[in-house]
């Protein structure tokens, strides 16, 4: 899957994001040559299971992002929080049209997914990278990488009273702080070193994860075909709402364009959001911060806004559309019955939103909407 992702970046350069075009190509190949599926399915399943880990470097490195002025930051947070909630409710309403609204036949509840390791073994795994501390100053990559992965495994035992991604970020930052004490440097310098070494390595697997979504869509093609109307309505309407509704909200709140443009791609996964931000001339680090915050909101609070009385497909579509990979990853653990819809919603919304942002006329309209018409598109 990693090789396919690298090949797509060479074969499909601009204007569309290469992971998106690679995923479309892989989906086409799977539809035309089904025999390819057994070759890519194991890698896709592995990437999907660990997808939340690949988002963690963005959250761990968040203190490195230069914060906007307090007044702008408050307005940006308002746009992200209200935008996420309105996207979720809009997608939930539209996804409940037609077949998606039909409640499933009663069935035994799906068993909760097993943790990656038993709690004691996970705790030992998290402690083990600290044995590398004497060598961490000269060999930071093994230490940072081991502590990042071990923190994720420990937080997925459900013994940590935090959301797994938040717990992973905090435990990984603790390891970064320990490195700074040993190396005798500022914590910010150690965090920058983490971001350029282990963080870059872990984040690089996000693009292959986008390709893995092609396998999820292929495996649910019958579901999409039987519920094409709610899927189409919710994906297209929420993608337009995410781009133009966010731009309008930023304009109404008089948020300067340099802080507005990074928010427009808030509801799609990081590789596609970075590509959309580059197309719009937006700050990539702020765009990733908005993506991470949106995903966190979706993974923690979606269940409170979309009740269990909503059909599983509609629940999944709403979460995947509004909260991208982090929301889908949370459903894979907490609501496995709704996860297929989340995978479909995440993949199609990412494709539609990133595709729209790559169209010159749409880019110009978005820049005008946020008041950036004077800046060259």
Automatic annotation (TrEMBL):
Chain ranges passing through the membrane: 20-40, 47-66, 123-145, 165-184, 191-215, 227-249, 286-306, 313-332, 338-357
Cited InterPro entries: CidB/LrgB
Chief location of this protein within or outside the cell: membrane
Keywords linked to the UniProt accession: Membrane, Transmembrane, Transmembrane helix
Compartment(s) of residence: Membrane
Superkingdom of the organism of origin: Eukaryota
Membrane topology designation: Multi-pass membrane protein
Pfam families in alphabetical order: LrgB
Protein name, per record: LrgB-like protein
Organism: Tetraparma gracilis
